[in-house]
Write a structure and sequence with these properties.
145 residues; four-stranded antiparallel beta sheet; alpha+beta; globular; Aspartate Aminotransferase, domain 1; 5 helices
């Protein structure tokens, strides 16, 4: 639900499975696995008509905007069917640090064995616009690749 319902940071999800599988999952899950805020948010979005469809539309619009803008800067987002994508930027740690100075946190992919890539997830359109503006301001993209 974190990705599909745009509930970033809440770490909320659910499982649908046969009883024997649920039984195994029950034995290994921590007793505090979902906090009250996440539970409230989950109940709200599941009870709101068209919430998922509206989220998907907004996410796809923001993702298209980001891909288009990054491409115009000479960066090449990798195609993705998910709500995030990877972008080759050269030294991802330097790219990340430059954006961090602007108050924007992006995930570098060194821990995945990809030190030249960052992972971006679209947020609201104004936040995506702020990200693109910060990349332009830092000039970090000119050193990418």
């Amino acid at each position: 639900m974190t990705k599909d319902y745009a509930l970033a940071g809440l770490r909320l999800g659910y499982a649908v499975a046969a009883k024997p599988i649920i039984s195994i999952l029950e034995r290994v899950r921590p007793p505090w696995n979902v906090n009250a805020v996440a539970q409230k948010a989950g109940i709200f979005v599941l009870n709101t008509d068209n919430y998922l469809e509206e989220c998907n539309t907004k996410i796809q619009e923001a993702k298209s905007f980001m891909a288009r803008e990054l491409t115009s800067l000479g960066l090449s987002p990798l195609p993705s069917q998910t709500n995030f994508f990877m972008v080759e930027v050269g030294n991802a740690a330097n790219f990340r640090q430059a954006l961090l100075k602007k108050g924007i946190l992006v995930r570098d992919c060194a821990s995945f064995g990809l030190p030249d890539y960052i992972r971006l997830a679209p947020r609201t359109l104004p936040e995506c616009q702020r990200l693109i503006a910060a990349i332009k301001e830092t000039g970090v993209y000119s050193r990418a690749r």
